[in-house]
Automatic annotation (TrEMBL):
SUPFAM superfamilies: PLP-dependent transferases (SSF53383). Pathway: Cofactor biosynthesis; adenosylcobalamin biosynthesis. Signal peptide: none annotated. Its EC number is 4.1.1.81. GO terms for molecular function: pyridoxal phosphate binding; threonine-phosphate decarboxylase activity; transaminase activity. Keywords: Aminotransferase, Cobalamin biosynthesis, Lyase, Pyridoxal phosphate, Transferase. The keyword Transferase applies. This is threonine-phosphate decarboxylase. Decarboxylates L-threonine-O-3-phosphate to yield (R)-1-amino-2-propanol O-2-phosphate, the precursor for the linkage between the nucleotide loop and the corrin ring in cobalamin. It catalyses: O-phospho-L-threonine + H(+) = (R)-1-aminopropan-2-yl phosphate + CO2.
Amino acid sequence: MIQTPLPAHGGDRQWAARIARCRIEELVDFSASINPLGPPPGVQAAYGEGFADLLHYPAPHGSDLQSALAARLGIEPERIVCGNGAAELLTWAGRECARAGRTVLPIPAFGDYRRALAAFDAPYISVPLAADFSLPKTLPPGDAVMLANPHNPSGYLYSPTALAALFDRFKLLIFDEAFIDFLDDPAAFSALCGPAHPGLIVIRSLTKFYSLPGLRLGYAVLPVAMAARWQAWRDPWPVNALAQHLGVAALADLDFERRTRAWLGPARSRLAAGLALLPGLTVLPGAANFLLVQSAASAVHLQAELLRRHRLLIRHCTSYDGLGERYFRVAVRGESENDLLTGALAEILAKTPATSRVDGCASSPPPSTDPVHPE
Ligand SMILES: Cc1ncc(COP(=O)(O)O)c(C=O)c1O
């Protein structure tokens, strides 16, 4: 029996392959929400050319990527900081929170926010979101707020009016827009198009939409003085030359953006409808390329069975504050893969004993020989 710790994030295929006792390539990963249409064809073409860039140090600032992003967003390049994934930029946002005072953290939230805050001993208070994942009517006093829009793990989309209420309340606003590119009209919901605010930080990722999780690329849009402060805090070359090169190629592919948006709506509706037909599952409406599902059966049990019997990896939500064993999250993938998932879940749920159902009082997963959930 291999003792492997439960991964903190989705997408840990090595861990999953050990549990499923298969090769990594045999897994279908629904746990990380990555665009199945990608990466854009232009990125593969640029990959070869990018080799020449490896012979030199990457541009520390003022890169072509920064200019490409500035042109797309219609803002000054000095307001953009490119990062080694959105996760690296969350770290510096955590440091800003520590400088600001107390952070209000609506939960459940992407687990990396806590890491970023803890890295700088930033004081924070967790506040439960409403049952439908909208913002609660009242928030405690604080200096900063950190929120994903669309929200992870629910896919809830906060309206410009809901965000405007936060603009009035906090001196530092961190909006994580890692999934916003999946909306038909990102500008209609982005905090970048809201009122001007001297403490506004928007963080985005190229990981999910452009299907480049291994490349590590994201960016932040923030006030110029803050951008300069972050550059002084960081190591000199946080974004490698290949990532910069491929990032420019990804952004140039407008046809890929159109194709992705045309694919997502119908694919998500079809998957949601398929899941909703299964016993004990309630699918929450979501605006991103994943769905949060509430389950009468233990999601830990479902994850284990899907892995062992079908080599399908989903994300149970025990690591999200306030969700626990009753929820799992799945990426929207290609049609045949989505059908595999609904078929496999139907089979497992038909056999799931009452003891593994969380509703009522029997909440423990069935006995297992593998440490799928060793905590
Ligand atoms: C809400 C959210 N923000 C940020 C990230 C990190 O993205 P990246 O891969 O660009 O570091 C993730 C990754 O899962 C996420 O879900």
